[in-house]
């Protein structure tokens, strides 16, 4: 009931009477009063005025099941939230839930992740109360060969979500990183369980540096956070909701063709190294060329001095010639 009361207070432009809440949720005024007091203890600033009711004055930076559910505005994504204060990996949890029958659109969120995975076996660890670690469970009716493009769709959603909430200009470093001012702020890892011609489920995991105030010497030259770029605290739950809305929008466009044909033009405007030199590593022999955007299959087009090459994500890494970007 606390989640429903919180959602009702958010929707209201002013005060909500205690009687209206009683009638809405079929409970006593005492039950409403107890729920309001519990919300206050959790950090929500709620004003109570006799003959007027209750008004939500301020929302703390809090990440919880209740907070996420109370601000949800998506149609099908996040129809089910699974929140954990701490876990090894949201992708691991999401895969287990998917195998146990979790619905399409289920979202796993953790306050802290201790053993998350990045591409090429890297570890993605998030300090407590600073970052977003979340994973979508998707069960699309499409061929397995199209699944990797969902990484690109997720990157677009993260960029537009950050932009809508903060005004920051974020860019995509193909295929699975989001950067701000040339430094990584987000990593994405898509994993799939499938048969030859059938997808059991896809999990799209996303880690975002939000409130981090510093990074290790090893990372400080190539990693950043939204706080470091703005000097302001951003509510993680609000950013998750903004990204969810964007992903739902782009996913529905993607599923119409099950490729990037409709989204490629917009995606290319967000590509950080479009037209610049890149170094492609991880294949038989590294090579350098100029990035020309993506194909409708999500491959990166790279023009070398001898030929045009199409780079598939896989285990290939694309970097700037002189650094991370």
TrEMBL record:
PROSITE patterns: BPL_LPL_CATALYTIC. It is an enzyme of class 6 (ligase). GO terms for biological process: protein lipoylation; regulation of DNA-templated transcription. Keywords: ATP-binding, Biotin, DNA-binding, Ligase, Nucleotide-binding, Repressor, Transcription, Transcription regulation. One of its GO terms (cellular component) is cytoplasm. Coiled coil: none annotated. GO terms for molecular function: ATP binding; biotin--[biotin carboxyl-carrier protein] ligase activity; DNA binding; transferase activity. Residues 65-255 form the BPL/LPL catalytic domain. Its EC number is 6.3.4.15. Biotin binds at residues 89-91, 113, 184. Residues 18-37 bind DNA. The keyword Electron transport does not apply. It catalyses: biotin + L-lysyl-[protein] + ATP = N(6)-biotinyl-L-lysyl-[protein] + AMP + diphosphate + H(+). PANTHER family: BIOTIN PROTEIN LIGASE (PTHR12835), BIOTIN--PROTEIN LIGASE (PTHR12835:SF5). Belongs to the biotin--protein ligase family. Acts both as a biotin--[acetyl-CoA-carboxylase] ligase and a repressor. This is Bifunctional ligase/repressor BirA. The lineage of its organism: Bacteria, Bacillati, Bacillota, Clostridia, Eubacteriales.
């Amino acid at each position: 009931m606390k989640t429903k009361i919180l959602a009702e207070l958010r929707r209201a432009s002013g005060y909500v009477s205690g009687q209206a809440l009683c009638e809405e949720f079929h409970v006593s005024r005492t039950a409403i009063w107890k729920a309001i007091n519990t919300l206050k203890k959790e950090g929500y600033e709620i004003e109570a005025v006799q003959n007027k009711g209750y008004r939500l004055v301020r929302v703390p930076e809090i990440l919880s099941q209740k907070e996420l559910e109370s601000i949800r505005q998506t149609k099908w994504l996040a129809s089910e939230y699974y929140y954990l204060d701490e876990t090894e990996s949201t992708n691991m949890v999401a895969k287990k839930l998917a195998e146990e029958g979790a619905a399409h659109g289920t979202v796993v969120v953790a306050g802290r992740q201790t053993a998350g995975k990045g591409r090429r076996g890297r570890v993605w660890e998030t300090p407590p109360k600073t970052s977003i670690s979340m994973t979508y469970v998707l069960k699309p009716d499409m061929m397995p060969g199209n699944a990797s493009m969902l990484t690109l769709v997720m990157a677009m959603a993260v960029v537009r979500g950050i932009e809508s909430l903060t005004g920051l200009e974020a860019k995509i470093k193909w295929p699975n990183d989001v950067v701000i001012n040339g430094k990584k702020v987000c990593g994405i890892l898509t994993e799939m369980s499938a048969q030859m011609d059938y997808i059991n489920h896809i999990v799209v995991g996303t880690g975002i540096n939000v409130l981090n105030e510093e990074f290790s010497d090893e990372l400080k030259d190539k990693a950043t956070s939204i706080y470091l770029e703005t000097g302001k605290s951003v509510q993680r739950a609000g950013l998750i909701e903004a990204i969810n809305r964007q992903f739902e929008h782009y996913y529905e466009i993607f599923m119409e063709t099950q490729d990037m044909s409709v989204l490629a033009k917009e995606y290319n405007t967000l590509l950080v190294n479009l037209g610049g030199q890149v170094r492609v590593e991880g294949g038989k022999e590294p090579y350098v060329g100029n990035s020309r955007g993506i194909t409708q299959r999500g491959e990166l087009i790279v023009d070398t001095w001898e030929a045009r090459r199409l780079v598939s994500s896989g285990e290939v890494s694309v970097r700037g010639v002189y650094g991370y970007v």
